[in-house]
Specification:
Layout: E1 12-16, E2 21-23, H1 24-30, H2 35-43, E3 47-50, E4 53-54, E5 60-62, E6 66-70, E7 89-92, E8 96-101, H3 118-128, E9 136-137, E10 146-152, H4 155-166, E11 171-179, E12 186-190, E13 193-195, E14 203-205, E15 213-224, E16 227-236, H5 243-250, E17 273-281, E18 288-292, H6 297-300
Parallel strand pairs: 10-17
Antiparallel strand pairs: 1-6, 2-5, 3-4, 3-6, 7-8, 8-10, 9-10, 11-16, 11-17, 12-15, 13-14, 15-16, 17-18
Length: 304
């Protein structure tokens, strides 16, 4: 696969055919272009070319042909209002955007909070820069969780990254401060998570929940004003709502500041949880990407 490029701002991918005889539809499927994406490309303003000539999906390719997929312009998601606001960009290229989301900022709009979210700010950035795409959030963070967040700048890129997550090829590492001294240096929580009866927000470990795995490693045990605390590193293998918060509560070590799950707010008024590391294969170039983000000030002060 050759590098992707922008010309008229629509997202493009180019390929050189290595097969002797294959039709365009089969070739695109082989290169992970989904049927949904292909349909949108065909009927919504995209283009398929072979050696710079428009072709339909039945066209027979030969070895050495150059195939280009020009993806259609995307409309903003319903309810997503572009809004100028702070966006701490860690990394950006034509396919992905990595930002450092502060605590207190929602990832996406909700029924009661339509503005002030990371997605609103990203949509305004795309509009300013002429990027013809809606905002595709790959890794969502809770309102009061800080740290790295990945956004795809095209539905096809989002599809590829979501596939990596399902295949456990997308690495997410968090840091947290929890109540008590965690006794084991390392352990795995492999317990199903579901909604707590009578609540639309709170999650609990329950047998009829969805599979969830969190790896836990102790970083430091300490005492602050006579109370025991532990800083921990956590790796997510699944992405259930409130997964870390519910798993650590179940283990007997609720996150500091997380009053929903039993944490004290003496030192911090939000759950002490931060996405510190993201690592994955770039969906277009195949390059291994690693992003890190230091703890914010409110969590650093917990450790002193």
């Amino acid at each position: 696969m050759n590098k992707s490029t922008f010309q008229d701002k629509r997202f493009r991918l180019s390929y050189i055919v290595s097969d002797e005889q294959i039709n365009l539809r089969e070739f695109l499927a082989k290169n992970d272009i989904s049927k949904r994406t292909l349909t949108a490309t065909k009927y919504s303003g995209g283009l398929l070319t072979v050696n710079e000539i428009e072709r339909d999906v039945r066209f027979m390719l030969s070895k050495g042909d150059k195939v280009e997929v020009i993806f259609p312009k995307e409309e903003l998601s319903e309810g997503l209002i572009p809004e100028n606001g702070p966006l701490k960009v860690i990394y950006e290229d034509e396919a992905i955007l990595i930002v450092n989301k502060p605590a207190g900022q929602s990832t996406i709009p909700s029924l009661n909070h339509r503005l002030g979210t990371t997605a609103n700010f990203a949509a305004a950035k795309f509009l300013r820069e002429g990027i013809p795409s809606t905002v595709h959030v790959v890794t969502r963070l809770d309102l009061n969780t800080s740290g790295l967040l990945c956004i795809a700048k095209n539905r096809h890129v989002h599809h590829l990254l979501s596939k990596q997550m399902k295949q456990a090829d997308f690495f997410r590492q968090y840091e947290a401060v929890v109540e008590g001294h965690v006794t084991q240096a390392e352990f795995v929580i492999n317990e199903k998570i579901g909604r707590k009866d009578g609540s639309i927000i709170e999650r609990i470990v329950r047998d009829d929940g969805k599979e969830a795995r969190t790896d836990v490693r102790v970083l430091n045990r300490f005492i602050k004003t006579g109370r025991k605390y532990t800083s921990v590193s956590l790796v997510l293998h699944t992405g259930r709502t409130h997964q870390i918060r519910a798993h650590m509560c179940w283990a007997g070590y609720p996150l500091v500041g997380d009053d929903l799950y039993g944490g004290t707010q003496q030192f911090i008024k939000r759950q002490a949880l931060h996405c510190a590391v993201l690592a994955f294969r770039h969906p277009i170039t195949g390059e291994e990407k690693l992003f890190t983000c230091p703890l914010p000030a409110d969590m650093k002060q917990l450790l002193v």
